[in-house]
Fold this protein.
Amino acid sequence: MRMDAEALGPQLSCSNGDIDARLTRVGRFIRAHHLDEIPQLYNVLKGDMALIGYRPERKFFIDQIMRHDNRYELLYQIRPGATSYATLYNGYTDTMEKMLKRLEYDLYYLEHGSFWFDARILFNTFCAIVFGKKF
């Protein structure tokens, strides 16, 4: 990202990274090929994150979500994950509407989580990355 990427305050990722003016050319490549997710694998190995879980958000945006739906706190029952059911089916969030929809998917995962559900999410994430799906 550019040095002044958030000069105007915290911002959400653009759903289409190609038009995100905050990214450098190298940053666009890294994001397009999901290489920016590699450090999260280290956090999974360290035990700070799970492979599957909800995608953590910055406090600034959590506060905004909580003003609309205070169920976000329920997600703290599980560890954040490198991938999630919500990311697969809702993509990256760039609007409050998408943030609230992602919360619904995360709460669904919280309620219905199982080994097989996790396996399906992991398989679908792998396929999405291999086939170049834009989140």
Q: What stands out?
A: The helical segments are 25-32, 38-46, 59-68, 85-90, 96-112, 115-130. Strands lie at 50-52, 81-83.
